[in-house]
Amino acid sequence: MIRQAVELKVKTTVYSTILKVLLPFLLVFGLLFTIVFFLLMMADQLTGEQKNPVQGGKATNVSKEVLRYQSTVKKYTKEYGISQYTDIILAIMMQESGGRGDDPMQASESHCGTVGCIKKPEKSIQLGTKNFAQQLKKAKGDLKTAIQSYNFGGGFIDYVNQRGGHYTKELAMNFSKRQYQKLAHTGIYHCIRPEAVPVNACYGDVGYVDAVLKYYDFTSPVQGKGKWTTPIEGAVEVTSGFGTRTWEDGSKENHKGLDFGCINRVTPIYAPRKGKVIYSEFHKNKNGAPGYGNLVILQHGKGLYTGYAHLFETNVREGQAIKEGQQIGVCGSTGHSTGPHLHFEVKTSEWGGHLNPQSVLDFRGR
Ligand SMILES: [Zn+2]
């Protein structure tokens, strides 16, 4: 009896010791398992959301010094409302500094008048991005004018705006020539490009646009099967694709067009093909709820229509004939919209028969 009791006691002690040691392990293990499980679920949800294409042109052949600033550039392009221009800023940085030094965007001169007053790369990126955002707005979204004025200064934009509002190399040469005539006596300007020497276009870099865009590939990863140019100016970013999309709350929606990121009240919207305006007014849903906002519908022939929604304003009227490449409005966020974008539709009738716009577009940059 005593031996049995002792055995029992020993057994119980062993069991309780095992339990005492194992229980915390089990608890910790269980907790860790739960945490890892939830993290994995969240990661899956995040990648799930990213299945909507968010894509535009890409910076190309830029150094690893430039690439390490990608997230900093992203932060400031978002802050200044030009998210889709992140890779353009990286291309500018590559041309300015290759990503080296304390002032990779070479923003000191425009900031304080002297070279080298900026000591922190982040400050340089902030000021450089802010400056570019301002130039882009002033140039009404004309990307090449904004890039050239990063080198020439804002005076170039006024010069271009007085002469049609679109960048050409010739305008850059003439502006440089004019500025050089005014400033040659200072002795601080000298010709950078061989082609600029014979005509004395020696103010700034007349080849700056080409030099920057050498580091930018306009070809969007979004593939198109057609020949039309995109209806939007600048660095094209598709922010939502055609077809079923899932919202954060899990609800699904059939998205009947393509969404392009653009700058509110700035980015011009163009007709990618000639046509006739058959609708140009503020659209609401039948129940009075916000719909397409300022909407233009073009007819391009029998059974082919395009729609341009959420515009800030339109500058066309019903019945008007439109040439290919003609401006029909300005980017906005009117109607049922969560932020500035162009909602672009291709369809076989005025209000129905939606096709995937990727069947007519080829996603070339303008
Ligand atoms: Zn849309």
TrEMBL record:
Transmembrane region(s): 21-43
Residues of the M23ase beta-sheet core domain: 254-349
Keywords of the record: Membrane, Transmembrane, Transmembrane helix
Domain CwlT-like lysozyme: 63-215
Name of the protein in its database record: Lysozyme family protein
Native organism: Fictibacillus terranigra
